[in-house]
Specification:
The mean pLDDT is 87. The longest helix is centred in the C-terminal third of the chain and has 22 residues. The radius of gyration is 19 Å and the shape is globular. The chain is mostly helical. The chain contains eleven helices and two strands; from the N terminus they run ααββααααααααα.
């Protein structure tokens, strides 16, 4: 995980997903691994940046480990009936949440925006633990002001879901997401007919709407079909 060879680091992170969160399940080694990773977060070697298989662009190993912990927390809040693992493994995952919260909390104010967003995403999901309910008011403003307006659609979804679960009004966030999706749909139509009527004026409006608010994962859905 902390190897100097970038290829080994990338492969190690991918193995975390493939072996310990495969098919959105937790396994006997998943919770112990999460606790170990959380203790690595403040290691200076996690500042090394790479391109990771599950995220667009470059980001630090620290940010990517936090993304894995967010995925872990996302699964840990599900019910056993959802097929997320055995009752024992799920109980171990849930028992780890307070410890993980304590380890991740400091990174919610990190200077690196990618680390900050990943930490907030993990924290918002960890707060599904009833034992952490008292911490919800502390993080609600940051989840709304940072996570809900992220360029990453996964983070925006987490923000909307958790804010709604906390009794917050998310009407504006839902509307903004619908407008963003409509703009993406229209962008797909423009790609098929770039010289259609009124395209120039629409592109200007779409650019204003999407500027700074779209991630590569969202846009791929409209670019890749053009090559098929």
């Amino acid at each position: 995980m902390l190897a100097t060879d970038p290829a080994r680091r990338v492969r190690a992170v991918e193995d975390l997903y493939r072996l310990l969160l495969n098919r959105e399940q937790v396994f006997p080694a998943t919770a112990p691994a999460a606790l170990v990773l959380a203790r690595l977060l403040d290691d200076p070697r996690t500042l090394a940046e790479d391109r990771w298989e599950r995220r667009a662009g470059r980001r630090s190993l620290r940010a990517e480990l936090l993304n894995w912990l967010a995925s872990f927390a996302d699964i840990a809040r599900l019910d056993g009936e959802d097929g997320v693992g055995t009752a024992q493994d799920l109980a171990a995952a849930r028992a780890a949440r307070p410890i993980l919260h304590d380890r991740i909390a400091d990174f919610c104010d990190d200077d690196d925006p990618l680390v900050r967003e990943a930490a907030l995403a993990a924290t918002a999901l960890l707060l599904a633990d009833p034992a952490l309910t008292s911490s919800v008011p502390r993080y609600t403003p940051a989840v709304r002001e940072v996570l809900a307006v992220s360029a990453d659609s996964y983070y925006r979804r987490i923000a909307r879901e958790r804010l709604a679960a906390w009794g917050e009004d998310v009407t504006g966030l839902v509307t903004a997401e619908e407008e963003r999706r409509a703009a993406l749909d229209r962008a797909g139509e423009l790609a098929e007919d770039p010289f259609g009527q009124d395209q120039e004026s629409y592109l200007a409006k779409a650019a204003d709407l999407l500027r700074g608010s779209i991630d590569q994962a969202d846009f791929k859905a409209y670019i890749f079909p053009l090559n098929e």
